[in-house]
């Protein structure tokens, strides 16, 4: 199947243009071609009325096209200014001029109203500020077309709003922003036009105001999606996890709500010998260079039927992998490296592997981060089935709508402690949001 099949996208100067689609729809391939990371088999890129060809990202940047990828390319031990000018340092008499670098970066920060200081060390910055450093790198190189790939995937709601303000300011100054995202409400809130891809083709295109969440979702997955599905309550049984501040019972989902950095990771790190879908799927949950089949064998590799007489059985490993791929709708070959799958398919694979263990307790962190609406529906359905089979689930999510949709009980973390608890009947976004901000007992 072609990754991009006769894709035509027209983007105007001074607009925020959203690109949407399911995981594996071809969005990243299209943007990689525009940025010079991949070469097209056919077709033409036209920039400011003239055909262009980029053999590398360096050529794209020289032509004014820059990209902020999901994995930031920053030097943590260097300052903001040093990261921004790296490779294009201002010089005086042949030597690096730190003063000129700081002044140039400070001017850009001021002009675009960013919450950064040139002398701050990148390692000390929150993730939203690091993303702004990546944007600054492109502005310093005078990029007038900025591609942002899933830019809100790791941001808090407040950081997302700040990013939107930056993007609106860039568009108002005449720059073009290509905003690649799965999130319907964000696309509707920030973009001027939207292009939707499905199976490598454009399935919808138009002014953002002509779409609704439902019509965007339908264009993405080719069917109607229930965006407001309310799942029935579970039937809690005996405890499967007991901590001084937290209990999870069989047959229930306990949701942990809270702004990132309020102790969720520390809480999860105290829990052992359970099935676990970690927040960092690439760094902790999988081995990117190993095949999908090998990744799906993790945790099963010392047990029958994957091993016999102390030796792994490749045919059984492949059969095991194919079973999980089919059951959880993972799009990809079991032989391909895990890291080459789209983010959503990596997530479905890891979730499928952990659910297949059948552990009494599943700890799942950010289960739908960077995942399209169709995959979200799939993941949520599997979690409900697992709960209804008598397992307990501890759900940690930055998506309040996800917490509200799935949880039988909701705990709020604030400044390292559980500050509030809500039954499903008591829970509403306003009360939980207040507790997340430290405003509730």
- Beta-strand proportion: 15-25%
- Taking all residues together, what is the mean pLDDT? 90
Write down the oligomeric state.
single chain
From the 3D structure, determine the CATH topology of the largest domain.
Rossmann fold
**CATH homologous superfamily identity of the largest domain:** P-loop containing nucleotide triphosphate hydrolases
- Biggest sheet strand order reads 4-7-8-1-9-10
Shape: globular
What characterizes the major β-sheet?
6 strands, mixed
Number of self-contained structural domains? 2
Q: Rg, please? A: 23 Å
Poorly predicted regions: none
What is the number of E strands? 20
Ends distance: 55 Å
Amount of helix:
25-40%
Going by CATH, the architecture of the largest domain would be 3-Layer(aba) Sandwich
Q: How many separate helices?
A: 15
Task: Describe the fold and architecture.
- The structure is a single chain.
- The chain is α/β, with parallel strands linked by helices and 441 residues long.
- It has two domains: 16-221, 3-Layer(aba) Sandwich (Rossmann fold); 239-436, Rossmann fold (3-Layer(aba) Sandwich), CATH 3.40.50.300.
- 34% of the residues lie in helices and 20% in strands.
- The strands form six sheets. Strands 4-7-8-1-9-10 form a six-stranded mixed sheet, sandwiched between helices.
- A hairpin with a 2-residue loop joins strand 19 (409-414) and strand 20 (417-423).
- The protein is globular, with a radius of gyration of 23 Å.
- The protein starts with 15 loop residues before the first strand and ends in a 5-residue tail after the last helix.
- The mean pLDDT is 90.
- One of its GO terms (molecular function) is ATP binding.
- This is ABC transporter ATP-binding protein.
- Keywords: ATP-binding, Nucleotide-binding.
- Pfam families: ABC_tran.
């Amino acid at each position: 199947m072609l990754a991009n099949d006769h894709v035509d996208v027209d983007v105007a100067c001074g607009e925020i243009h959203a690109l949407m689609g399911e995981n594996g729809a071809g969005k990243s391939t299209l943007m990689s071609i525009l940025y010079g990371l991949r070469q097209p088999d056919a077709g033409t890129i036209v920039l400011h009325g003239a055909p262009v060809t980029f053999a590398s990202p360096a050529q794209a940047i020289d032509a004014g096209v820059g990209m902020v990828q999901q994995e930031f390319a920053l030097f943590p031990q260097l300052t903001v200014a040093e990261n921004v000018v790296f490779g294009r340092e201002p010089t005086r008499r042949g030597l690096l001029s730190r003063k000129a670098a700081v002044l140039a970066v400070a001017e850009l920060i001021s002009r675009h109203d960013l919450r950064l200081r040139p002398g701050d060390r990148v390692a000390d910055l929150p993730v939203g500020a690091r993303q702004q450093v990546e944007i600054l790198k492109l502005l310093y190189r005078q990029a007038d077309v900025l591609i942002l790939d899933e830019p809100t995937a790791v941001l808090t709601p407040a950081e997302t709003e700040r990013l939107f303000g930056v993007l609106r300011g860039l568009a108002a100054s005449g720059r073009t922003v290509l905003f690649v995202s799965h999130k319907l409400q964000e696309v509707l809130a920030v973009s001027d036009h939207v292009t939707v891809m499905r199976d490598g083709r454009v399935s919808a295109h138009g002014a953002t105001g002509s779409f609704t969440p439902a019509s965007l979702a339908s264009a993405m997955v080719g069917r109607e999606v229930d965006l407001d599905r309310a799942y029935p309550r579970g039937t809690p049984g005996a405890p499967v996890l007991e901590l001084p501040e937290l209990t999870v019972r069989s047959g229930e989902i306990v949701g942990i709500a809270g702004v990132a950095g309020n102790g969720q990771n520390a809480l999860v790190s105290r829990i052992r010998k359970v099935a676990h879908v970690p927040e960092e799927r690439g760094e902790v949950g999988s081995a990117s260079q190993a095949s999908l089949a090998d990744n799906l064998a993790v945790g099963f590799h010392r047990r029958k039927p994957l091993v016999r007489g102390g030796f792994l059985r490749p045919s059984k490993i492949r059969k095991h992998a194919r079973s999980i791929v089919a059951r959880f709708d993972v799009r990809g070959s079991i032989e391909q490296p895990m890291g080459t799958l789209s983010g959503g398919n990596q997530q479905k694979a890891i979730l499928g592997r952990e659910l297949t263990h059948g552990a009494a307790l599943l700890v799942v962190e950010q289960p739908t981060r960077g995942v399209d609406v169709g995959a979200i529906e799939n993941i949520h359905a599997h979690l409900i089935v697992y709960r209804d089979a008598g397992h307990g689930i501890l759900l940690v999510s930055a998506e309040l709508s996800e917490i509200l949709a799935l949880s039988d009980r909701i705990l709020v973390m604030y400044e390292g402690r559980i500050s509030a608890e809500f039954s499903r009947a008591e829970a509403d976004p306003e009360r939980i949001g207040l507790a997340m901000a430290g405003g509730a007992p």
